[in-house]
Design a protein that fits this description.
124 residues; alpha/beta; Rossmann fold; two-stranded antiparallel ribbon; 6 helices; globular
């Protein structure tokens, strides 16, 4: 699978990319929404991991753009500023799941298995 990791923090992008690659999957990372959308035009992705806080950008705004251009790609929202209202908003807006940073590698592995084994129509 190809996974797109979108986070404004380089260390997070690198760490999550390493986890994805260690699990035998491809990882592409982007620090900004524009770079992520360009990557999505060039590469088919099976899963997007999206930080809700992208500096001056809103992950929620980017989630909407991703859903508009690639409605079948599941998106997992993650953030270090997790609150119940943010989690509820992420799910309401169509995120497949919501994780608090730092998330456990096991969460990622379980999601990779879920995406690999669930038909696209049943993921969302």
């Amino acid at each position: 699978m190809n996974i797109l990791i979108i986070d404004d923090e380089k260390i997070i992008r690198e760490a999550v990319s390493q986890l994805v690659e260690d699990a035998g999957h491809g990882a592409v990372s982007a620090g900004r929404g524009a770079a992520a959308l360009i990557a999505m035009k060039r590469t088919p992705f099976d899963l997007v991991l999206l930080d809700i806080n992208l500096g001056r950008e809103s992950g929620f705004d980017l989630l909407g753009k991703i859903q508009q251009s690639h409605p079948k790609i599941p998106v997992v929202i993650f953030t270090s500023a997790a609150t119940l209202p943010i989690e509820e908003e992420a799910i309401r807006r169509g995120a497949l799941d919501f994780w608090e940073k730092p998330f456990a590698p096991e969460q990622l592995h379980q999601m990779l298995v879920r995406v690999e084994t669930t038909p696209p129509a049943l993921r969302l």
